[in-house]
């Protein structure tokens, strides 16, 4: 069957996420497997066009992977008639103007979350894409991770009975940068540069909760800056003005209560960097990035509170592993293939800019809740998008 090539402009691939997950493990991996398979038996290969602010970094990246097209000019890249998709993994602050330019050039647009720094910008992008008639999508990688896919399988199969609550723990200690190099870029800790864990992680929790358990009706959150002084990539101390931890309670449609802690100031004492525990009347589950364990109602032990005696059994040993039952591909790559099919053959892709704006809305509500010290009720954005 026919094999065609689709040009993909990739802006921001010199960063960690854009480089490793989107360029190497998605776009280049797709080409290594022979392209994206289509419904008619054909395939689509991707021709990456690298864009960024630093020519030396772009040249080094292009040389490393044998990529022939790169430029420091977004205007030049957008002028390529064979490039139908624009992808953006830049810092959030740069996203709205670049994506606006790509939409004006008639490109289909696929972006990292959050789609904008605030709801106004996110809604503007959604409207512009709709008016221009271009395909648009936002990355929602957590939904395609093995652990979350197993968890969704349990939800769809009715394992939990009536779901009561969801508890999530995410985070790890990000070094301050003085005696050990930080694992995240310094802009993440400056509010003036679009940083902050609430804006970074609440969009993730929005699509996870709403895809698996129900629509978020209200938010109560506390966003704080625990580490107020950090050291940047050049060894210069700076004031950390963005929140580095967020503690949120989300009320979901149907009465489910979700509590999720997000922190770059926590040392990990769990099996994975993110874990969700779901408790229902018929059973419970704990899901991470890859694994998922369950405890059914009929297999639930009878704990008895007695602080005077040591526990003589391991509570984690009383849970069962959920089997894979399928081969799980890279979460980012799976969604890239979905978006390419959406562009080429109009296959379904529900993760559009309207959905992305919803995540920004919840993050904004969380920040407002923290600032005002109160519960924030959410409304629908359907009329706005």
Automatic annotation (TrEMBL):
It comes from Actinoallomurus acaciae. Residues 51-135 form the Gfo/Idh/MocA-like oxidoreductase N-terminal domain. This is Gfo/Idh/MocA family protein. Residues 149-285 form the GFO/IDH/MocA-like oxidoreductase domain. Keywords: Oxidoreductase. It comes from the Bacteria. The keyword Metal-binding does not apply.
């Amino acid at each position: 069957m026919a094999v065609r090539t689709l040009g993909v402009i990739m802006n921001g691939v010199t960063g960690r996420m854009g480089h490793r997950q989107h360029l190497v493990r998605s776009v280049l991996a797709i080409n290594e497997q022979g392209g994206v398979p289509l419904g008619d038996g054909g395939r689509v290969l991707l021709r990456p066009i690298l864009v960024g602010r630093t020519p030396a970094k772009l040249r080094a990246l292009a040389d490393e992977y044998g990529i022939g097209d790169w430029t420091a000019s977004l205007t030049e890249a957008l002028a390529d008639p064979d490039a139908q998709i624009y992808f953006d993994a830049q810092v959030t602050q740069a996203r709205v103007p670049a994506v606006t330019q790509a939409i004006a050039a008639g490109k289909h647009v696929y972006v990292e979350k959050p789609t904008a720094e605030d709801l106004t910008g996110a809604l503007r992008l959604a409207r512009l894409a709709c008016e221009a008639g271009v395909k648009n999508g936002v990355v929602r990688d957590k939904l395609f991770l093995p652990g979350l896919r197993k968890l969704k399988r349990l939800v769809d199969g009715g394992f939990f009975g009536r779901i009561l609550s969801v508890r999530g723990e995410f985070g790890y200690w990000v070094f301050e940068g003085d005696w050990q190099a930080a694992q995240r870029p310094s802009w993440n800790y400056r509010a003036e540069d679009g940083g902050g864990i609430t804006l970074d992680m609440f969009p993730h929790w929005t699509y996870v909760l709403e895809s698996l358990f129900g629509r978020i009706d209200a938010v109560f959150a506390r966003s704080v800056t625990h580490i107020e002084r950090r050291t940047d990539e050049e060894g210069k101390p700076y004031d950390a003005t963005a929140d580095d931890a967020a503690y949120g309670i989300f009320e979901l449609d149907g009465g489910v209560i979700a509590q999720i802690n997000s922190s770059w100031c926590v040392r990990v004492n769990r099996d994975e960097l993110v874990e969700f525990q779901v408790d229902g009347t018929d059973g419970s589950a704990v899901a991470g990035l890859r694994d998922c364990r369950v405890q059914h109602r009929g297999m639930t032990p009878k704990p008895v509170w007695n602080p005077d005696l040591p526990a003589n059994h391991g509570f984690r040993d009383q849970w069962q592993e959920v089997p894979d039952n399928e081969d799980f591909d890279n979460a980012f790559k799976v969604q890239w293939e979905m978006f390419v099919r959406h562009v080429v053959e109009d296959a379904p892709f529900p993760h559009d800019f309207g959905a992305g704006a919803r995540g920004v809305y919840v993050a904004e509500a969380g920040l407002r809740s923290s600032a005002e010290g109160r519960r924030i009720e959410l409304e629908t954005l359907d009329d706005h998008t």
